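For the sake of transparency, this paper describes our internal protein records without simplification. Because each token names a local backbone shape, the row as a whole describes the fold. One such record is reproduced below, unchanged from the form in which we store it.
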Amino acid sequence: MSLPTWFNLKINAPHYVYKPTSKLIPASVPSKLNQSYTQHFECPNSLIPPADQNVAAIVFGDGSNSRLYPLTKRRSESALPIAGNYRLIDAVVSNCINSNIRKIYALTQFNSASLNTHLSRAYSSARIGNEALVEVIAAYQSPEGKGWFQGTADAIRRCLWVLEEYPILEFLLLPGYHLYKMDFQELLEAHWNNRADITVAVLSRTRDNDTEFGTFQLNSENQVIAFKDNPDKRVQNSEKSNDISHDKFASMDIYVVNKEAMIKLLTEYHPLANDFRREVVPGAISLGMNVYAHKFSGYWDDMRSIEAYYRANIESIKNTNKAYCLYDKDSPLYTLPRHLPPTQITDAVITDSVIGDGCFLNRCKIRGTVVGMRTRVGDGAIIEDSVIMGSDTYQSGRAEEDIHIPIGIGEGSRIRKAIIDKNVRIGKNVKILNKENIQECNNEANGYIITGGIVVILKGAIIPNGSII
């Protein structure tokens, strides 16, 4: 496969002319893998650079007020496994790659070790000349700024000296823990056509849970009139504007920001602002800057709760328009190439499920389940409607004398509607069924919690033989 032609972004002062020519597909990535189009990201050491570069993506590795605990006890939201073989951050980085965004900065801070390792291993070989495709900027202290990043705006402000080194004209701000597919070229084209200082991505439809990032009020030309942060659901669902040219749309927390506008907003107009959405964007609107919205109608999930995470995994099994498609040849999903052996299946019955690489499934029954890499399932086990994250490593030899229970799911165990985190040891004849339909329970001391009726087994937990949950 020959290298693609990069899209050209030419400057026609004082406005931009947008001329996409083709999509980026790394030369060494095969077109098909095991009859699917989900791909491991194996880029050549260098790619042919285009004539110029105008856009850099800034990806935030974690958010605030996460409701994904205990899945985020030892990892950031962006590092959460998804659909067997991937991490949430892979969806966002893949959107950038498929949209010809060739410079990506990942700003990380909270529980970032796992995320930083994944990013460096997965994308370190992708380079544009001497420049890395993805550059991780972990939270740091300096004489000018001590302590942790205080928010998205503070993080960008403190990293401006790095960001300004690259000759770009626009910043694309992206949360790293959302699951969606978007052609950022369309977002950028709308931004340039409107000659905007800031362009926000909004959902073109209304859902009950679309209030997490607030709503934008737009006029008939999609110019932002006002922003309301975290409005009450009942107000949003019942309010109807008398002016049909002014509509409200839910924010996706995705922004395109002109570089000069960004510098002025963060250093001159709002030098003490910490949060970009709550402080900087409303400030730009009040200053009379050109703030426009771009409507998005595809699949999107903000992954801000255990229930949302569970639902997104289970929906990935289904081949419907409501699910995130893993098999889209035009927008492949990239990740770290692990070079694991094929999954070994011995007399197992598997229906409506996704199975990751390198698993051992022995005479078990699996239905409606996402099974992560290196998962071991013993004889007679039954797993239904669950998310099994798998294991980080293969267990060598027999289990330790004082543990007795190897990593994986033991013989005769039954699991239904559960999330099993990585490296869990589930003994023989264990029942994780929540028969009493308990909705909320915190039993972290014994290795599990229940939220929204979903049983979550903590990472590395040991569930003894015969346990009933």
